[in-house]
Amino acid sequence: MSVSQRLADLGIDLPDVVPPLAAYVPAVVHGDLVYTAGQLPMVAGALLATGKVGDGHALVPAADATALARQCALNALAAAAAASGGVDRLAGVVKVVGFVASAPEFTGQPGVINGASEVLGEIFGDAGRHARSAVGVSVLPLDSPVEVEFVFALA
Amino acid sequence: MSVSQRLADLGIDLPDVVPPLAAYVPAVVHGDLVYTAGQLPMVAGALLATGKVGDGHALVPAADATALARQCALNALAAAAAASGGVDRLAGVVKVVGFVASAPEFTGQPGVINGASEVLGEIFGDAGRHARSAVGVSVLPLDSPVEVEFVFALA
Amino acid sequence: MSVSQRLADLGIDLPDVVPPLAAYVPAVVHGDLVYTAGQLPMVAGALLATGKVGDGHALVPAADATALARQCALNALAAAAAASGGVDRLAGVVKVVGFVASAPEFTGQPGVINGASEVLGEIFGDAGRHARSAVGVSVLPLDSPVEVEFVFALA
Q1: Is the pLDDT reported for residue A23 higher than 90?
Q2: I need a surface site. Which of A77, B61, C90, C113 has the fewest CB within 10 A?
Q3: How confident is the model at residue B20 (pLDDT cuts 50, 70, 90)?
């Protein structure tokens, strides 16, 4: 099944490509790989949330952050599709690195970045299985709670 | 000399592959490279230590963290070997990124990640020479003091 | 126009390669890519500045940090040129990851890492357009305000 059919079956509309915040491009094709820029959970030009992830007052709950990471994956898919000639050119996922702006005691970064990994599994099946790092950082651009970068493989 | 012979000469038993904490795989082969997930210093399912690296009460000393980074490298080698058909398929190391959960004043991240780099040099010789980044982060999954990801080259 | 001519036109003298702080190499060629180590803003063996980036007393202003990121890019170019047989072997830039040692409230990491991205654009033109991540971290090696790693493409 093609990626576009799979997206339709899952009821996922690919978002518009998020314009870069600065002097770079959303995704670059080199050889049979597509490298995306670090993706923020933006929809229609605005972050879905801001702040640090953790438990407690004024923090972003982990469950919310997991949904944000899913949005990062969809934004990455849109960027990779635009750079490579369409989403059906993408064959799978090689590598994901997830950065979680974390309260000092928050150690659940893997669960947060699962929001990205799991939607890629739904879309690509076994070809969506990727190597991954998830780390906690002190602060991210625009005070985003998460930033995730991706390497896709071309068909 | 094969990698397996070199490991035997060094008295290094390759550990079992550490199962992923989440929805990803320990290593992915693409082309002639093997990308590993971020490796934590786990042995038999448990972290060897937790906490932040630095000097002072309740911190993980840099020397201890260096040994943890070495364990990350061995875990990565096991993961890459399992993904690629055996440790003797691995020809060398291309890239290492090391994340050190750091007390705010701790700036010795390169020395810590040397624990990974040096054991790869012992195992692969000149082919183990890699490009590397080492950074300090606020917190890592499960409160691990270090997390290191690797790109190996296949023979 | 060759990269060396372009550097001359821009009045940029490529710096000496910064020796690694530890057990790794400044850059590795694999296939048609050159992976650099994380570059610090060193000139003649010393950091140009130390500390965290942000607004306020004892912090490194964002504008200063942007200039530091530019130096990281030039150091990377020198490292990649030395590893690959000369700067004219380099055809473009694929990927940049920028780490900014950030005060907790500082969210302008993209602007800082523009210092690296923009000089690469000046040197390589369209071929310098790269995918990029920029994140804030708590502390960097030697208390450097920025560390940036690069993947260049060979001609």
Answers
A1: no
A2: B61
A3: confident
Please report residues of A whose CB lies closer than 8 A to that of B21.
110
Interface predicted TM-score (ipTM) of this complex, two decimals: 0.95
Q: Chains touching chain A at 3 or more Cβ pairs under 8 angstroms? A: B, C
Give helix A62-84 / helix A109-124 axis angle, nearest 10°: 40
Residue of B nearest to A121 (CA): B23
Per CATH, the number for B3-18+25-154 is 3.30.1330.40
Q: How far is A37 from chain B (nearest CA, A)?
A: 17
pTM, to two decimals: 0.96
Q: Would you kindly state where each structural domain of chain C is located, as residue ranges?
A: 3-154
CATH fit for domain A3-18+28-154, picks 3.30.1490.190, 3.30.1330.40, 3.40.718.10, 1.10.260.40: 3.30.1330.40
Planar angle of CA A44, A46, A49, nearest 5 degrees: 125
**What number of C-beta contacts closer than 8 Å exist between A and C?**
85
C3-154: CATH number: 3.30.1330.40
pLDDT in tens, A74-130: 999 999 999 999 999 999 999 999 999 999 999 999 999 999 999 999 999 999 999
SS3 A32: coil
Residue type present at position B92: G
Could you tell me how many CB contacts below 8 A there are between chain A and chain B?
85
Contact C117/A at CB under 8 A:
yes
The beta-carbon neighbor of A141 closest among C31, C110, C129 is C110
Inter-axis angle of helices C62-84 and C109-124, to 10 degrees?
Answer: 40
pLDDT of residue C121 exceeding 80:
yes
- Which chains share 3+ C-beta pairs under 8 angstroms with C? A, B
The whole-angstrom separation of Cα A89 and Cα A2 is 9
